[in-house]
Amino acid sequence: MAEEQLQAFLEKVRQLNAFVALSEARPKLRDALAACSNHHEVVALAREQGYEIGKRWGEPDPAQGGRAGADNLLQSPCPPAGQERLDLLLESPCLRLERIHSCAHCTAPGQWYDQPEAEWVLLLRGSARLRFEDEDEARDLAVGDSLLITPGRRHRVVATDPDPGTLWLACFWTPPPSGWRSAPASSPLTDSPP
Asked: Could you give the 3-state DSSP secondary structure of residue 145?
């Protein structure tokens, strides 16, 4: 780890420790912290108290001019809250590759994606919750998680991260009539119910 990265990490730990100490000293703040139901609520509460604890390891600091452009899948301006931006990276008659940048986005209530194509998604940045109609609980996805969604399997996005958002890499294709093979069962996530 470079010295600059080490210092950034240590500063985040210092800010986190100071926020925890403050919450222990102020019962109302501790109660507000206990009422948080996800990472983003904790980050927002800490920010209200003057602490910045939300940057994830390895994320560039936008204030320091992180690289942006078509040659970098991880850098782009965040779309407005509640929206997604799709960037078509590759398209052929049998395959489509998209980069999806979501910001505090969810599928509209009552709507389900039900597509004739197979879809493989990889989370490049952020986190997301995805729900399949045939499962009782939504699935939590983090950086590096991938998921294969078979054709016709109804699913919806329950939540994605607020600014700087969630980045997905999505590959769509139409399986041949004779069927198709998926990754071995040792893959971390598949679309099969647990």
From this structure: coil
> How do the pLDDT tens digits run along the chain, 194 residues long?
688 878 888 888 888 899 899 999 999 999 999 998 777 788 888 888 888 887 665 555 544 444 444 467 888 888 999 999 999 999 998 899 999 999 999 999 999 999 999 999 999 999 999 999 999 999 999 999 999 999 999 999 999 999 889 999 999 999 877 655 655 544 455 555 44
Cα dihedral value 148, 104, 31, 43, nearest 10: 90
What are the structural domain ranges in the chain? 3-57, 83-173
CA distances (Å), 79 to each of 54, 69, 104, in order?
19, 15, 9
Backbone angles phi, psi at 118, to 5 degrees: -80, 150
- Any idea which fold 83-173 has? Jelly Rolls (2.60.120)
CA 56, distance to chain mean position in Å, is: 12
Q: Considering only CA atoms, give the Rg of the chain.
A: 19
